[in-house]
Amino acid sequence: MTRKQRRLVLIGSALGVLGLAVALVLSALKDSIVFFNSPTDLVEKHVPTGARLRLGGLVKQGSVVRGENLAVRFEVTDGKSTIPVAFVGLLPDLFREGQGIVAEGALDAAGTFKADSVLAKHDENYMPKEVADALKAQGLWKEDSEKQVGAAPPGRTP
After folding, report:
1. Per DSSP, which regions of 60-144 are E strands?
2. 64-67: Cβ within 8 A, 24+ apart
3. How far apart are CA 73 and CA 51, in angstroms?
4. Residues 4-59: pLDDT tens digits?
């Protein structure tokens, strides 16, 4: 084999190994790549207890119950399904009923989502595109706010 042929074989082998590595990583992360799962996704996928994930949706009206030592219980809905959430800690200033949120944590054996962190949209005009798309799919989208989806408010970058 000439030097040029050996170099081409080496480059081809390296690209093959790299392609295989990328395929394995994407295969392992196929469910984790999603920014968040809606309550309906959790119900339909039958997520195992203790699996770490993100839950996104709207805080159900009348569901927020504050307890002692910063404990808060509320429900997250996408209009079709509702998941109870338990969180201990400081909530974002913009957290309220009817607010779009993303909570990170795991489901317990009772079906309650134990959140480690709760994120709320950063201002009243902004909604992440993924949350808006999920709300549109459920028929809960307000057409008057469509121009705000995925766009940062003036003077801010997303």
Report:
1. 65-66, 71-77, 82-88, 100-107, 113-120
2. 64/96, 64/97
3. 20
4. 999 999 999 999 999 999 998 888 777 666 678 888 888 888 888 888 888 888 99
Give the residue carrying structure tokens 């170099």.
Answer: 7
DSSP track, 31-70? TTSSS-B-HHHHHHHTPPTT-EEEEEEEEPTT--EE-STT
Q: Which helix (H) or strand (E) holds 133?
A: helix 129-138
* Each residue's pLDDT tens digit, 81-126: 899 999 999 988 888 888 889 999 998 888 899 999 998 865 555 5
Q: Is the distance from CB of 56 to CB of 101 less than 8 angstroms?
A: yes
Nearest of 35, 33, 83, 34 to residue 58 by alpha carbon = 83
Q: Name beta bridge partners: 106.
A: 52, 114
Residue 140: closest CA among 67, 44, 38: 38
